[in-house]
Amino acid sequence: MRAIQITQTGGPEVLALREVPTPTPGPGEALIQIEACGVNFIDVYFREGRYPAQLPFIPGQEAAGTVIALGPDVGAVKIGDRVAWCGVSGTYAEFAVAPVSKLIAIPEDISARQAAAAMLQGMTAHYLAHSTYAIQRGDDVLIHAGAGGVGLLLTQMAKQRGARVLTTVSTEEKAALARKAGADEMILYTQEDFAAKVRELTGGKGVPVVYDSVGKTTFDGSLACLRPRGVMVLYGGSSGAVPPFDLIQLSTKGSLYVTRPTLKDYAATREELELRAGDVLRWVAQGSLKLRLEHSYPLAEAAQAHRDLEARKTTGKVLLIP
Ligand code: NDP
Q: Ligand 1: distance of its center to the CA of 3 in Å?
């Protein structure tokens, strides 16, 4: 099969298309022919070596397609089923093997591209808005990178829960997309001091929660946006990792909380996975959760997809099509 295989970590150029053996499903696993594969920022961390993986490896951990073979001891799915999954590496390929315990049936009225786009970022937005900090009606919330993949979905879910959404973006075009997703206040954090703006927009009070996926360049400012006992949700580091931090700051800035959550722990059981994926796919089918699918690349152009994602040129979801 054709797949992107990384033999050494580094820049986007290490994403080379190769001919590799098609994997064989083991016990409890299915072989899936991939129709669409999701690109996520975590793929950049693995490509760079920021997150460790044994070489060589096929990157990517989100896809949708059709089951074409089954290993032993598989009861829950059958050949021909349309499925989507995330959190299993090896999806930048024509075929991938995944444990059936991770597979979610794609509802009839949803395309493979929509399913591949919704799983990882949709369930992330879901746990952030409902579980890490359960947004309450009337809350002011700050969401960084509001026109990004997670950002657009999290904004819509925060609005569904009755929040007033303050969001940061780097350009006017992205501000318009964030507004369309329901954001109330857009802050161009490349041009103005976002922490000062958040204070101004909240009458000096600050916000009860900041959702920060940008990390290195925003972390200190994000803490300054919180009201006493506010929650700092650091869920990514698109601008780089946050350096070591003196915990006493949490006291001096108002008895703050910091958490560094990850989807794996918020979709830890089959029940929780089904609940989050079920909500997300149902909302997409109903049209109450809108996906932005403007950035699809052939599998062979994975390197360009990464370049564009890292250069902040993409908005919403980035897909690879085998
Ligand atoms: P995005 O589509 O949000 O892309 C990243 C965005 O970050 C850019 O578009 C850009 O928006 C902003 N950004 C700010 N500074 C930089 C920089 N120096 N370089 C690149 N981008 C920058 O990506 P995803 O939706 O895939 O992921 C968003 C974040 O969420 C990532 O950090 C990812 O790791 C994290 N994540 C965490 C999960 C978890 O469970 N913890 C699960 C899924 C994602 P702008 O131009 O507006 O500044």
A: 25
